Amino acid sequence: TIDISEPGAYSQTNTASGHVRAVRRASAADFDSEEQTLSAELLAPNFALLAAAGISSGLPVMLGGGTYSLREEIKLDRNASLTIRGPGKIVGDCHTLFKATGNRAVLDVANVELVHVASQLRQERRELGGAVFVLGKAQAKLENCTINSQQGFGLWMVQRAGVSVDKCRFVSCGRSAVVIFGHSKLKMVDTNITSSGMHGICARGESQVQVVSSSIHDSYTRG
User: For residue 124, which phi and psi values (nearest 5 degrees)?
Assistant: First the structure.
C-alpha cells in the first residue's frame, strides 16, 4: 500500500482492486455555493500526489467524482505512463497541466474535466501553455473529456506525438483548441470544438489529422 498525504488530501494504492484512489476528496460539499470561483477550486486537494502514485505504481488513478488542483505540471518522461479515470475535475494554472515528453510516454485520460486557468503571472507574460502537451514520440488518449484552456491550447502536439481523441468537448479555449506541428498524428472521433479564441484545429508541417464525425463551431479566425 502507498500512502501519500498532506493536510486535507490523501492518496492510496489499493492493491486488491488495482487502482490508486483518494481517501479524502473534494466535492461540491466542500464549497460554499455553486458560484464558487475557479480560484477557490485551485485550493482543492493537490492532484500531484495521486499522479505520483499512479506513475510509480502503474495503476490507474480513480478520481471518484472529486475536484483536484494542479499548481505545477505533471511531466511524463521516457517510458512513463499515467492513467486517469473519472468522473472528476482537475483545475490548474501552471504552464501546462500534463506534459508527455519522453519517448514511449503514455497519458490516458477518460471521463475527466480539465480546466487550464490563466494565472496572473502567465497573463502578464502573455504565456499560452495548454491543458495537454504531447511531444517527442509520446502518446496520449483522451476519451469523453471536457477540455478548456482560458489563455492557451486545449491540446498541443509537436514533433512526432500521437494522440487519439474520442467523444471529447473542447470548450472556449483562449487560443486554439488543438494545434499540431511537426510530424505529429491526430485521430479525432465524435468530438465537438466550440468557441475557440483563434482556430478550432491548427495543423502545420507534415502533421497528419484524421477527423471523423466531429464538429467545429464559432472559432474566432477559422475552424
Answer: -65, -35
